[in-house]
Inverse folding.
């Protein structure tokens, strides 16, 4: 109102440019190009995520035991095992209800699914699910890098994150 800022009533649209930056006559053409590029980006995203998940499954099958700290087994897998099979050590955090059952409870559900697979099956299904969950940073890296720098950089960054040693080891 007197400050000199353009309001919608004072913007001149006769130049063919709308406030979003697209030409009014070209909007349909631009939308078709955008949808084609968007489909290509999602295909590349799926390919990179599937490749990194396959890499994680191969490392899981090849090396299997990727536990670094005994405490992580004791506080999560041990409690899930105890919930499913009925025996195990009860730490004071669970006895006094200090620690949450959300993560061990989710692992217990996955262990129950894998229990009919045999001796090691009850551990394979949670590891497989956690490997699938570890692909999330790869997808986020791809989407974020695609938006800021482009498609080629997004693929390179996502593959780099997908084969990052710590993320693969702790998957």
């Amino acid at each position: 109102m007197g400050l000199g800022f353009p309001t919608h009533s004072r913007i001149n649209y006769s130049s063919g440019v709308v406030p979003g930056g697209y030409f009014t006559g070209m909007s349909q053409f631009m939308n078709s190009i955008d949808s084609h590029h968007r489909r290509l980006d999602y295909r590349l995203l799926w390919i990179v995520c599937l490749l990194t998940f396959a890499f994680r499954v191969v490392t899981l099958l090849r090396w299997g035991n990727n536990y670094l700290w005994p405490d992580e087994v004791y506080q999560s897998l041990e409690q899930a095992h105890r919930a499913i099979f009925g025996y195990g050590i009860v730490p004071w955090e669970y006895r006094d209800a200090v620690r949450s059952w959300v993560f061990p409870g989710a692992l217990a559900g996955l262990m129950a699914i894998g229990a009919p697979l045999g001796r090691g099956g009850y551990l394979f299904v949670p590891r497989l699910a956690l490997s699938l969950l570890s692909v999330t940073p790869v997808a986020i890296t791809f989407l974020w890098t695609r938006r800021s720098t482009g498609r080629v950089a997004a693929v390179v960054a996502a593959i780099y994150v997908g084969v990052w040693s710590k993320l693969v080891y702790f998957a």
